[in-house]
Amino acid sequence: VIVPDYVEPVVGWRVWYAVDGGLSTSLTSVVHRASWPRLTPLVASCRRLRTAIWPFNRSRHEAPADGCSCGIYAGTIETLRIYLPEHFGFRAVPVVGRVSLWGVVHEHELGWRASHAYPETLYVPTPHLGSRADGILRELRGYGVPVYAVHATSAEAVLDAVTSRRAA
Amino acid sequence: MKLGKPKRVYRVEPIRDPVPRQVPEKGEPARDPARVPAGPARSA
């Protein structure tokens, strides 16, 4: 029996895109475009095994692993800036949020890589969405976590608004 | 996401499931989980 180091999830920050999949709007990761399921944890797997040009020198391993970049990422709120566009357009729907991480967690200087994750709170910048805003917010509430509209139109303003709301 | 240098690895097993069992009713308060250390890791 291995006794856990913590009995509450680590909570970090990340950015998703809300993507209209036809039947529903889902969260997807910004870098790897992984789709985050509703009411089910996202479980990490190592994608380097699938994309390697010369795969024979790669060993199959659980994610996250030492010496690999695999795992589900989250960082401090200060790390999010570069993943948000300067100004939001009509097509991309970035979502900022807090995410619970658990299982095997690798702590880094600015964040974490984890084996299991699920959104904890979602903040959706809405001014650029126009009439689509209500529908997207309603769809994202299907994740069963708090979803808040953020009335800001630039990356800096969104992060300021989210930080202020957390501090309130 | 640039996370910087690795620091340490730990095992996290939440007592409460971080995944909602169902969509909360409108107006239900948000959870605010905090990290609670369970003491030093050990194996038995």
The arrangement of helices and strands of chain B along the chain is E
Task: Compute the separation of the termini of chain B in Å.
Answer: 36 Å
- How many β-strands of chain A, per DSSP? 8
Sheet with the most strands of chain A?
A: 8 strands, mixed
Largest chain-chain contact? A-B, 46 and 37 residues
Q: Characterize the biggest β-sheet of chain B.
A: none
Low-pLDDT residue intervals, each spanning 5 or more residues of chain A: none
The general outline of chain A is globular
What percentage of residues of chain A falls in helices of 4 or more residues?
A: 10-25%
What's the number of helices of chain B? 0
Rg of chain B (CA only): 16 Å
The structure class of chain B reads mainly beta
Mean pLDDT of chain B: 71
**CA(first)-CA(last) distance of chain A:** 41 Å
Structure notes:
The complex is a heterodimer of chains A (168) and B (44). Chain A is globular and about 50 Å long. Helix content of chain A is 15%, strand content 35%. With 168 residues, chain A is α+β, with helices and mostly antiparallel strands. The relative contact order of chain A is 0.20. In chain A, strands 1, 2, 3, 4, 5, 6, 7 and 8 form an 8-stranded mixed sheet that branches. Chain A starts with 9 loop residues before the first strand and ends with a helix. Chain B is mainly beta. Chain B is built from no helices and 1 strand. Chain B has one strand at 6-12. Chain B is elongated, with a radius of gyration of 16 Å. Residues 32-37 of chain B have low confidence and may be disordered.
Question: Topology, pairings included?
Answer:
The complex is a heterodimer of chains A (168) and B (44).
Chain A: E1 10-20, E2 25-29, E3 35-36, E4 42-43, H1 48-51, E5 72-75, E6 94-108, E7 111-125, H2 133-140, E8 147-150, H3 155-167
Parallel strand pairs in A: 7-8
Antiparallel strand pairs in A: 1-2, 1-6, 2-3, 4-7, 5-7, 6-7
Chain B: E1 6-12
